[in-house]
Specification:
mainly alpha, three-stranded mixed sheet, two-stranded antiparallel ribbon, 19 helices, 5% strand, globular
Length: 451
């Protein structure tokens, strides 16, 4: 037990030190090196509109909502770093900060970010445009801190902005995303079975998940999830401490993400892991215990990393972020926004609205196809060989995780349904896996499941 605690403690300390060092080093990049690409990025996001925080685009089978609000915020934060004070700038994560222009500094609060008083509405894209185009008639003199998050994406985004503007970053993001999905699918085909690989790929198609690569905000957790999948697929037999791996995954998720879709980085990799373990043999009851351990490890990595950021900001920057963060948690897990009360049914309905009927129909169609293939193969319901219900439990539990998330974070899930609806990817994939196992089309004859 002592060795385990020591191992996790050392890993955690190394991670936190690495996060701070990485953030400080990349924050030392002079603004002049990203100035031109920042201006191009701001112009691209704003387009022809004065407020383009949300864009609606028709894709090949359903409408997609691009949440430029947070994309502009992330780019704004990257631009607003003061390279003469890299550590402070990274820890406080200000937006709208231009040393020779800024006159008012606003600290982080328990509520969401607001825009400068130049506008009486949220206008993140407008703010980003005008701080990068200081020759325009609108001058933004108010800066806002967003210190409750790590903003670890800055360690990637700032160096990339020295080379590319946002349109190119979008293209590169899409290429990397597609390559990662293809790699995961290929390895699942080779190491698990073709059914799991096909269902994995289909879940991305049905959810239109490839489109998330257009948003640096939404794609972050997808990238972490896909990279985690690849690591598990390649290293699971050589990794003796899988809970420690999930601890690191949870920590990295908190470092890079802004509370968009963190659940993805646990749910999808854990499904991949158990699909692999079934190939080499795992007791049904043992799988439940392991599942709980992996969940606790991921949650500990995620939560402790977040708390560490609050403490560091309080110590290094003399803020009161720990108290602010506690109030923010109460706010986000509540069911109110002003005078509006969000019921659980409203939260689910709002997320399903953005999911779209097309995705629901496609999910049902694939489920029906699984059923028909099972009937053709087995001639009768459900399958000829015995399957342990406990063995399905890990996938059944995983399939309901998005609904638990929506219940636990009603306020957040209701307000940000434009991207939180993408958590349905977890439900779809896990649900299909359960059906495939029940109907005997998952190649389980090759597996070594023990009662």
């Amino acid at each position: 037990m002592r060795k385990t605690i020591l191992k996790y403690s050392c890993t955690f300390m190394i991670l936190i030190l690495s996060y701070v060092l990485l953030g400080q080093v990349t924050s030392a990049i002079p603004r002049s090196l990203i100035e031109e690409n920042s201006r191009k990025s701001a112009q691209y996001l704003l387009g022809k509109e004065q407020c383009a925080d949300i864009k609606i685009e028709d894709t090949f089978y359903k409408k997609e909502y691009i949440f430029n609000y947070t994309n502009a915020l992330m780019l704004n934060t990257a631009y607003s770093i003061d390279s003469t004070k890299p550590l402070e700038s990274f820890m406080l994560a200000r937006k709208n900060y231009v040393p020779e222009v800024t006159e008012i500094w606003n600290q982080d609060t328990q509520y969401g970010l607001v825009s400068a008083s130049n506008w009486n509405y949220q206008n993140q894209t407008g703010e980003y445009y005008y701080i990068t185009h200081k020759d325009q008639d609108i001058v933004v003199k108010e800066s806002f801190e967003y210190a409750r998050y790590w903003h670890g994406y800055l360690a990637i985004l700032r160096p990339v902005l020295t080379l590319f503007s946002y349109p190119t970053i979008e293209i590169l993001s899409r290429i990397v995303f597609v390559l990662l999905v293809i790699s995961c699918t290929y390895l699942m085909w080779k190491k698990i079975n073709k059914t799991a690989a096909i269902l994995f790929l289909l879940s991305f198609v049905v959810m239109n998940s490839f489109y998330t690569a257009s948003s640096i905000n939404e794609v972050t957790c997808f990238m972490i999830m896909l990279c985690s999948n690849l690591y598990i697929l390649l290293r699971y037999q050589k990794t003796k401490q899988m809970p420690l791996v999930f601890f690191v995954i949870g920590s990295i998720t908190n470092y890079l993400d802004l509370l968009t879709l963190p659940l993805l980085t646990f749910a999808m990799p854990v499904c991949i892991y158990f699909l692999l373990k079934e190939k080499e043999g795992i007791k049904a009851k043992e799988s439940i215990i392991t599942y709980i351990k992996l969940g606790i490890a991921w949650g500990a990595g995620y939560g402790l990393t977040w708390v560490a950021k609050w403490i560091l900001v309080d110590i290094l920057c003399n803020r009161n972020i720990l108290e602010v963060a506690m109030k923010q948690i109460i706010y986000r897990t509540g069911s109110k926004e002003g005078n509006v009360i969000f019921s659980y049914s409203y939260v689910i309905g709002n997320n399903m609205k953005f999911l779209g009927n097309e995705a629901l129909y496609a999910t049902g169609f694939v489920a029906l196809a699984i059923l028909l293939m099972g009937i053709i193969k087995n001639k009768k319901y459900p399958r000829k060989d015995k399957i342990n219900v406990v063995q399905l439990a890990v996938y059944l539990i995983t399939s309901v995780l998005p609904f638990i998330w929506y219940f636990a974070l009603k306020n957040h899930s209701a307000i940000h349904a434009r991207f939180t609806h993408r958590l349905f990817l977890i439900f779809i994939f896990a649900f299909w896996i359960v059906l495939a196992k029940m109907w005997g089309i998952d190649n389980l004859k090759k597996d070594k499941i023990r009662e």
